[in-house]
Amino acid sequence: MSRIKVDSDLKDIMPEFLGLLEKELLMIDDAFQRQDLPFIMSFAHKLKGDAPGYGLRDLGDLGALLEVECRNGSLPASFPIFEKIKAFLKHIEIEYI
Predict the structure, then answer these.
(1) Over the stretch 4-43, which tens digit does the pLDDT of each residue have?
(2) What is the pLDDT, as a whole number, of residue 81?
(3) What does each C-alpha distance from 5 to 16, 59, 93 come to in angstroms?
């Protein structure tokens, strides 16, 4: 588990954000099956912008990397980054400060 400290002001909205991300991850898994790079890139761009606002800067950085690989048209290079995003979310523990 990776412990991440975030502002206690986010305590009420963080579960909703993480829940939405879980649903989006399922859609992105499907998008990889369909080889839908524009859809994946849209998710990555949104993640790059949204995650840091929730105190999840590393997750935003992964979103930025995924967006770059999608822009480059590289589905094979994109998938390992997506797997890192899933692992990150699976292994975080939020500590509110």
Answers:
(1) 999 999 999 999 999 999 999 999 999 999 999 999 999 9
(2) 97
(3) 17, 13, 9
Say how many C-beta atoms besides its own lie within 10 A of residue 56's C-beta.
25
CB 37 within 8 Å of CB 25: no
Token pair, residue 66, equals 């995924």
* Token digits of residue 34: 């369909």
Q: Are 75 and 32 in contact (CB under 8 A)?
A: yes
- pTM of whole model > 0.70? yes
Give the position of tokens 């839908």: 36
- Please name the residues in contact with 46: beta carbons below 8 A apart, sequence gap of 6 or more: 63
